[in-house]
């Protein structure tokens, strides 16, 4: 997978050389290029922003400098639509980035990320590229405002690249974790040895060696934890895909499971 990132702080992405992402880079699974947006400016001050039209606080990133940069990275106007990169802008006012988005983007060959700063970027930039047939995505990583898109791009990149075949030592760990699959639940708690630590014991069933019992215990723990912390995820479950045992647990937790999706009744 080829990854281009445009930022006024490209050094920020030096961190990508660390940890598993760094390993994936050295194994050749991914190639990452962080570009400085100011390299596409023509004035002595290398300015990338201007005051907002209509007034208001802060500065807005100018479309012209972004367009020169993105035309080059996207190979426009020559490149045909089929092998165009996907263009991604982090933006606090966009739909939330989810595990589903990470999974979909992990199948792409080439991603280009544009990091906004200040009060954001001119809204005509994504519009312009969409109108030219580019697949443009805007995502928020959470309901809070950061100083710029760099942290958000790091978050998205980590979520996407760890799904690439060959990235994880043990690919099973991806299948089992939170938010994965159609019927997403929060993952059950995990424990390691020792079985007893500072007066706190690992749940006895996990030491029983009975795999069916362990699976059922973990599934119930996942249902209970999701009910407590993210009931919105329970309400999105497909009742038709739930086992008899899942239904029983959900009913005990106060959900009705007779329709398409669970409904809280107590
Ligand atoms: N830029 C600033 N805040 C952001 C957020 N929450 N998500 C994505 N990009 C951002």
From TrEMBL:
<dbReference type="GO" id="GO:0005829">
    <property type="term" value="C:cytosol"/>
</dbReference>
<dbReference type="GO" id="GO:0002939">
    <property type="term" value="P:tRNA N1-guanine methylation"/>
</dbReference>
<feature type="binding site">
    <location>
        <position position="116"/>
    </location>
    <ligand>
        <name>S-adenosyl-L-methionine</name>
    </ligand>
</feature>
<keyword id="KW-0819">tRNA processing</keyword>
<protein>
    <recommendedName>
        <fullName>tRNA (guanine-N(1)-)-methyltransferase</fullName>
        <ecNumber>2.1.1.228</ecNumber>
    </recommendedName>
</protein>
<dbReference type="InterPro" id="IPR016009">
    <property type="entry name" value="tRNA_MeTrfase_TRMD/TRM10"/>
</dbReference>
<dbReference type="InterPro" id="IPR029026">
    <property type="entry name" value="tRNA_m1G_MTases_N"/>
</dbReference>
<keyword id="KW-0963">Cytoplasm</keyword>
<comment type="subunit">
    <text>Homodimer.</text>
</comment>
<feature type="domain" description="tRNA methyltransferase TRMD/TRM10-type">
    <location>
        <begin position="1"/>
        <end position="235"/>
    </location>
</feature>
<keyword id="KW-0808">Transferase</keyword>
<dbReference type="Pfam" id="PF01746">
    <property type="entry name" value="tRNA_m1G_MT"/>
</dbReference>
<feature type="binding site">
    <location>
        <begin position="141"/>
        <end position="146"/>
    </location>
    <ligand>
        <name>S-adenosyl-L-methionine</name>
    </ligand>
</feature>
<comment type="similarity">
    <text>Belongs to the RNA methyltransferase TrmD family.</text>
</comment>
<dbReference type="InterPro" id="IPR029028">
    <property type="entry name" value="Alpha/beta_knot_MTases"/>
</dbReference>
<keyword id="KW-0489">Methyltransferase</keyword>
<dbReference type="GO" id="GO:0052906">
    <property type="term" value="F:tRNA (guanine(37)-N1)-methyltransferase activity"/>
</dbReference>
<keyword id="KW-0949">S-adenosyl-L-methionine</keyword>
<dbReference type="InterPro" id="IPR023148">
    <property type="entry name" value="tRNA_m1G_MeTrfase_C_sf"/>
</dbReference>
<comment type="function">
    <text>Specifically methylates guanosine-37 in various tRNAs.</text>
</comment>
<dbReference type="InterPro" id="IPR002649">
    <property type="entry name" value="tRNA_m1G_MeTrfase_TrmD"/>
</dbReference>
